[in-house]
Amino acid sequence: MDNLTPTPGQTVGPFFGYALPFEKDNELAAPGRPGSIRLQGTVTDGAGAPIPDAILEIWQPDADGNVVAETGSLVRDGYTFTGWGRASTGNTGRYTFTTVNPGATRPGAAPFIAVVLFARGLTNRLFTRIYLPEDTAALAADPLLASLPEERRSTLLASREPDGGLRWDLRLQGDGETVFLEFDGARHAPAQGA
Length: 194
What we know:
It is a single chain. This protein has 194 residues and is mainly beta. It is built from three helices and eleven strands, in the order E-E-E-E-E-E-H-H-H-E-E-E-E-E. Strand 7 (159-160) and strand 8 form a beta hairpin. The longest helix has 6 residues, at 136-141. It is globular, with a radius of gyration of 17 Å.
């Protein structure tokens, strides 16, 4: 029994077409609702090629900074903001959400959206954040951003589109690699490579 060979680990997917998509899964807010915005971007690999079958999940507070505790995240009624959504990438690696600008959860805090990524070739999901670009004082005081080298911080900052929406691209490796987080109990730290 001492000479057993371990079996290799299995990667995440690609199996997302079965049971994961559901109606309006990427609509945290109804399109056209006052205050709704579009969050969009592209997921790419280390060579800059789009990843066609990734899934992103987001969690966020509402526009007033309230962490939402509503049930029914999988049932979109067009009125209830649950703070959670899921979007898959298409052949071009693009994703889109309809949501609201998250508010700060406490005075002076930088508003952000928590992101989890699932994709082929990953043995586990990846965690990261999207920060809003406007409040430079709050961004400068954010403990996570302050812990990063200055050149890496921009990978967590969305850009504001002319229509008021947000654009945020996610890169798995290479130049401009997105900062990913490791969670150890209640504390978090930047991951050392994806």
